[in-house]
Amino acid sequence: LIGISFSSMLSFIFTKQKNKDVSLSLLTFVIMICVGVFFLCLKFFFPLDEKPNTKTVFISLIQPGKYALERLESDKTKKNVYFDFLFSQISQTSKLSKDTNISHIIILPETSIDLTLSHDIQWLNSLKNRLQISENTFFIFGVKTLSKNYLTSNSSMLFDKEFHHLDQADKVMIIPITEDEFFSAESYKILHTPFAKIGSPICIEGQYSLVVKEFISLHANLLIFLSNTRQFQIGFHHQTLGNFQLRRAIFRAIEFDRSSAYVNTFGPSALVSNEGKILAFLDSKESDTISGYVSLSDTNSWYFHYGEDIIRMIVIIMFLLTLVVVLKQRFLHG
């Protein structure tokens, strides 16, 4: 719509001196609308192969909320309030799948655990002795950790039921100034469990279609967006940014026909179907856990296959129409 409006206004600027040429502006507008409607009628965002989503996975999102503020305290007692909350939520949530054979993923937001600190490492190691977890339960934690070359990375880390480190995906897109402490990974990767292939964009990575497309190209059948918007206090409220990121996660679910989970330290957080429907939701003011079933999809949408070609075609049409207007005006005025 922005492109359509820009093209129409640009054409009008070059034709406003001649009332009879205003029709060219309207023609440009109509052509752009027709192109958009045509591809929408082709089920622009829907799968090419209408295969039913028969596989499901049970997902739990833990949103620390106000307890995350205690983590910043230097007092160890106050710091433990945060970790006690995480433990209680993990303990309660893991019981949902303890006596069943369901596939379960429990998720913590971006940088929830700092594995550069001995306190956080000790807490994580203690979980294996304090919890009894079912075989098909896995954990994805947003962590701050040291890489093999001793650089700090912002990562999503995969653990099994005994909290053994299975794999991790490091953040590639680093924000200048606010994330200077982190190094940028060379490429995107997905996390593998026996039942799901997971793309886990971190923070700003989920805002860009081409970045999420990288995960889909690696055959991810589930998207998990990890975020901690509290660290961004410049120019806008972190809750506003959280709501914006959630809307983008919903759009990505529709765009790529993938069920998605968006979890933010201070909220909001939500489970989203591949049709963009919110299945479970936590508001920004809450410190709690939400759970639900989402489907796994391996089909690709029209947009995944042809979206970029369509955008290029529209840009070329806009450029040619504008060029025609400019040349016509110069010819008429000598």
Please supply descriptive tags for the structure shown above.
about 325 residues, alpha/beta, 6-stranded mixed beta sheet, single chain, 8 helices, elongated, about 25% strand
Strand content: 15-25%
Helical proportion, percent range: 25-40%
> Which residue ranges are poorly predicted, with pLDDT under 50 across at least 5 consecutive positions?
none
Radius of gyration: 24 Å
First-residue to last-residue Cα separation: 34 Å
Largest sheet: 6 strands, mixed
Structural class: alpha/beta
What is this structure, in a nutshell?
By secondary structure, the protein is of the alpha/beta class.
Topology:
Blueprint: H1 2-15, H2 22-41, E1 56-63, H3 67-71, H4 76-94, E2 104-114, H5 118-130, E3 137-146, E4 152-159, E5 165-170, E6 191-192, E7 197-199, H6 209-217, E8 222-227, H7 238-256, E9 260-264, E10 269-272, E11 278-282, E12 288-295, H8 302-332
Parallel strand pairs: 1-2, 2-3, 7-8, 8-9
Antiparallel strand pairs: 1-12, 3-4, 4-5, 6-7, 9-10, 10-11
Please tell me about this protein's structure.
- With 334 residues, the chain is an alpha/beta fold.
- Helices cover 39% and strands 23% of the residues.
- The protein has 8 helices and 12 strands.
- The strands form 2 sheets. The chain has a 6-stranded mixed sheet, with helices on one face.
- It is elongated, with a radius of gyration of 24 Å.
- The mean pLDDT is 83.
